[in-house]
Specification:
This protein is mostly helical and 124 residues long. The chain has a single domain (2-115), classed as Rossmann fold (3-Layer(aba) Sandwich). It contains four helices and two strands; from the N terminus they run H-H-E-H-E-H. It has helices at residues 2-9, 38-45, 81-84, 102-123; strands at residues 70-72, 89-91. Helix 3 links the parallel strand 1 and strand 2 (89-91). Helix 1 (2-9) crosses helix 4 (102-123) and helix 2 (38-45) packs across helix 4 (102-123). The longest helix is centred in the last third of the chain and has 22 residues, at 102-123.
Length: 124
């Protein structure tokens, strides 16, 4: 959600890449193919974003230096050590909407949007 919201509201002024800490054997899997993503897909459609073709991507520790800013929506203690004290990392306190209801997913979407808009303003 964060990548898509940033992409939409930054109007292409910045590049963005979203990755997961662990996708297991599911790298490249389309979000639209996940039964558990129904509420995320719907919440994002409500703000004009289609995530069906978005794909899961694995974090590559070797490429971390290519990023000017890294946003983590996972608790500080759960990220790899290389990110824990990295000055380029900002931690957003955002719950995972996985297997939650649509209203909760909307709340998370709106919180991510708020953080995203603040980040875009900061980058100007």
């Amino acid at each position: 959600m964060a990548e898509a919201l940033f992409r939409k509201f930054s109007s292409g002024a910045h590049s963005v890449n979203s990755v997961c800490l662990s996708v297991g054997n599911n790298e490249g899997q389309r979000i639209g193919d996940l039964a558990s993503a129904t509420h995320v897909l719907r919440a994002m459609e409500e703000v004009g974003i289609d995530l069906k073709d978005a794909k899961k991507k694995q974090l590559n520790h070797d490429n971390l230096n290519q990023y000017d800013k890294i946003i983590s929506m996972v608790a500080h203690t759960l990220v790899p050590e290389v990110l824990q004290n990295n000055p380029r990392v900002t931690f957003w306190d955002v719950a995972d909407p996985f297997e939650k209801d649509l209203d909760f997913t909307r709340e998370i979407r709106d919180l991510i949007l708020k953080h995203t808009q603040e980040l875009i303003a900061e980058l100007k």
